[in-house]
Design a protein that fits this description.
Layout lengths: L5 E6 L4 H16 L5 E6 L3 H4 L5 E4 L11 E3 L2 H4 L3 H13 L1
Pfam family, one: PTS_IIB
GO molecular function: protein-N(PI)-phosphohistidine-sugar phosphotransferase activity
Organism: Verminephrobacter eiseniae (strain EF01-2)
Length: about 100
């Protein structure tokens, strides 16, 4: 049985952009047959939350002290390279 992974979606406020990316990633992964638990946070909260998640999707820079994998999610805002980012999220979920 595969454990359901947890993604931490991060933006500057933990409300607006991270919500949009969370919704887009959830829908895209659902189409790929994948599910996950989602959490959202602002960038300053990441060091205290990172231990409880499998990886992070961030639209803003986060602390360099975080050891979990970080996927840069700016492509969700620009649309450029979004498919590549979705492939990266899928690859992390399938590990």
């Amino acid at each position: 049985m595969t454990r359901i992974k947890t993604i931490l979606f991060v933006c500057g406020t933990g409300v607006a952009t991270s919500t949009a990316v969370n919704v887009a990633a959830t829908e895209a992964m659902k189409q790929r047959g994948l599910t996950f638990h989602a959490r959202q946070a602002k960038a300053t909260e990441v060091p205290s939350l990172a231990d409880d998640v499998d990886f992070i999707v961030a639209t803003t820079p986060i602390s360099g002290s975080v050891t979990k994998p970080v996927i840069k999610g700016l492509a969700f805002l620009t649309g450029i390279g979004k498919d590549k980012i979705l492939d990266e999220i899928e690859a992390e979920l399938r590990k």
